[in-house]
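Hey team,

Sharing the M3 family oligoendopeptidase run so nobody has to redo it. Sequence (569 residues) first:
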Amino acid sequence: MKDKRREMVKFCDLKYQRPDFKKEEQEIRDYIETLKHVSSGKELKEVYQKEQKRSEYLQTMQVLASIRNSIDTRDEFYENEMKIFHGEIPKIVLLYQEANKVILDSPYREALQEGMPATLLTDMEIEQTLASEEVVKDMEQEALLCQQYSELTAVSQIQFQGESCNFYQLLKYMQSSRREVRKGAFEAWAALYEQIAPELDKIYDDLIRIRVGMAEKLGYESYTKFRFAALRRYDYKEGDARQFRSQIREVVVPFCQKLYKEQQAQLGIETLYYYDESISNPNGNAVPKGTPQELVEKAQQMYHQLSPETGEFFDVMKESELFDLETRPGKRPGGYCTFLARDRVPFIFSNFNGTSADVDVLTHEAGHSFAAYETGKTEIPGDYVFPVNEIAEIHSMTMELFTYLWMELFFGEQAEQYRYTHLADAVKVIPYLVCVDEFQHRVYANPDMTAKERRAVWHELEKVYLPWRNYAGNQFLEEGGFWMQKQHIFLFPFYYLEYALAQMGAFEFFVKSKQDFQNVWEDYYRLCRVGGSMGYFDTLKFAGLSNPFEKGTVRSIMEGVARELNLSL
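Structure output:
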């Protein structure tokens, strides 16, 4: 299949130019008029595909500005550019909504079912309900509040051991082999969140008010139902999510309690406090050896040995400098993979902090990026390069597990320690993932809750999903302040259950790979190339993976993982 990418230059040399939004709007109006006069299914498809190609410029400029804004939130130019996009994009959304309505009303609409993503027309129908003139200002305000949150968390600093640290710089100290250092870093980390908590509460209050109001104006029964539609959760409903969380409570939470008991014994401590949870060995966690540049070199070697396709992918990423990995003052927290539509290549953003998480980035975000890179070679429209999140996270989490074979490159004699800890941690995080999900369900079911009441809800849920959690008397966290550290709750509402669902798929791939790695790799590679061309359940079937909502699936998958960890379920 012909590679659809254009000749790539280094990311730093990509030229940003603010789009002419008036011209963009006119181009879409012209597109609408053309759609109204097509005379065949073939012509409809050609007009649609031509517009998809034309729109890549606007998409790419928006992503480029967003990346550069997140690299340095203090850069006034890109901060202002993002504010302009926040004001203009809702108008563009409404125009495309109008265009899609013409397609949906066309007698030739079925032509878009041939060789196009299976959910394309369904998506267009759902999108008709997700925006209107009435909520344009709300959409803009929501985006500005999210930007305000990102800027606040990026610039927040606290003094620790003579160093001015942001959240990510503290995480390194929170994994120290010296317990008093871990405890001090934990207290500084909690104090930093407590310090900005009033501002975070205010931002979240405003976000909830705007989001609930938008859903109401658009005719949705609740914001939760609106968000399920926006996330393309067509194959499952709120009740299915509850049933999945129930499986986690019944199977995974008790297993995690065993893992933490084992960890406590390994550390030789009487009580496992929160600041002990992130360390697996009394001598400290496995730490990658080498500078960030050396880690990238080792990753390149690893991906060449994994497969010709991953080797090619990482060469392009490295040569074109399609990542920004090191943490710096003013840089937005977290990590992500995004896609430059015009160039058909991904970009990785992260915050290296000198811990094993740096290697996790080179596998997790690389999993996303590899899938986007492969789909970028195809005819799949840019909007469908990434599949639904439940599938996209299988790409990333499976890559983390498949690359275990090369961990000696990064950790030397500590490789086996890393592998065990990483797999155990992948299990331990699942109850937290569904805890975040239920928290959001509770919040949006009761949007008038005060900040104090939200903390009480989080504290209540921690007892259910994280019964081992002990904050060593820290009042802010004991009263439920821990939820604030999860940026998804602010920026990507309800996007968190997907990680737990996808982890089941990744675990299933991993357990199967222990018997026949090459064949399972081929299944994974095929999964990476289909992008969002199918719905969630159909994509699972295509990859030979189980449906995690079906009763007994979680237990069956976890039994295989438990064997790998030499512990009974």
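Residues 11-142 form one domain.

Ping me if you want the raw files.
A.
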